[in-house]
């Protein structure tokens, strides 16, 4: 799933590619992706691109006073095309293509979504806040206002909720997903199950520093990369996420996993839980 660093890099990459270009045509290939009808999609066509920005994990292409907003969900991605086919794309259950954005010079992007569960979303709105997911976003963790005290207030309000879930909740903190929440907690040497309101004093400082460092370094590594290179860059630099059974790069202990109905988390017992494995309820049921 693209998270804050990858979406930030995509926005920067597309901002350069879209500069001085007009949106010639927006092809909605997977009709389930389109979430708005007023303004219609064709209202942005013929307008020059003013900017490409990010709101949490949402991409925002502003053109002609409107905003074409994309949320890539779990399996979406953006692919740059130096030359697009002259024939319009057709809907197909066998193709991952969801949206094609054609520029006035024949270049453009294909927005694809792998798998059978389709969650990718396209909006055309007058203001970014007209997108419900953007209107409900929590603070961006890379802005100056995201201070240690601001994080402390968030954790206190979350009560006994597990810190892993608090970090992932977009209405609480914008842009952090499953992968980077694992990475942040590993960097902070903190259990993903730790109650949020127990994180105070030095632990609060440590977690705040880890959020800024992990995300900031990922953004720095991603900046300037083309879309095609971002996935590989992310995977190469993960310490625990997606590395179940492999050695922790810090202490050498085996990275472990806790599985849920539709996701999983990875952690290092030595670095994060005092050497104790966390209970994996799904695995426990299988062993009975």
Give your account of this protein's structure:
Belongs to the FPG family. Pfam families: Fapy_DNA_glyco, H2TH, zf-FPG_IleRS. Keywords: DNA damage, DNA repair, DNA-binding, Glycosidase, Hydrolase, Lyase, Metal-binding, Multifunctional enzyme, Zinc, Zinc-finger. Its cofactor is Zn(2+). The chain is α+β, with helices and mostly antiparallel strands and 288 residues long. The protein folds into two domains: 4-135, MutM-like, N-terminal (N-terminal domain of MutM-like DNA repair proteins), CATH 3.20.190.10; 148-287, Helicase, Ruva Protein, domain 3 (Orthogonal Bundle), CATH 1.10.8. It has nine helices and ten strands. It has a four-stranded antiparallel beta sheet with strand order 1-6-7-5, with no helix packed on it. A hairpin with a 2-residue loop joins strand 2 (49-55) and strand 3. Helix 1 packs antiparallel against helix 7. The longest helix has 22 residues, at 201-222. The chain starts with a helix and ends with a helix. 38% of the residues are buried. Residues 283-288 have low confidence and may be disordered.
